[in-house]
Description:
Distance between the termini: 14 Å
Shape: elongated
Number of strands: 0
Helix content: over 70%
Structural class: mainly alpha
Largest sheet: none
Order of helices and strands: HHHHHH
Number of helices: 6
Amino acid sequence: xxxxxxxxxxxxxxxxxxxxxxxxxxxxxxxxxxxxxxxxxxxxxxxxxxxxxxxxxxxxxxxxxxxxxxxxxxxxxxxxxxxxxxxxxxxxxxxxxxxxxxxxxxxxxxxxxxxxxxxxxxxxxx
Length: 126
């Protein structure tokens, strides 16, 4: 679980920090000045990968997921139907651009896939 959580965290840092930071800020309506007082929220960022990894791990138990391939498929299903599905609520009932939904959904789908891939691979290694 620690490995998958760390990888999810790194991918999030790449997507929102290194690769698409300016796009995320623009789509979210932030500038450097308006984001500054909200930075405290980023202290919560390690919690989400842990929750996702733990949840995927719990759901994988007893479901025949025993290698990285089946883990990846299982994680992508969780990512699409639970993580992205839940994320759609913000889009449907909020006032946000489609680009933000797409960026967040790609990240969430990757989160499920990473958790399943790593946890399935580690199970196969046991």
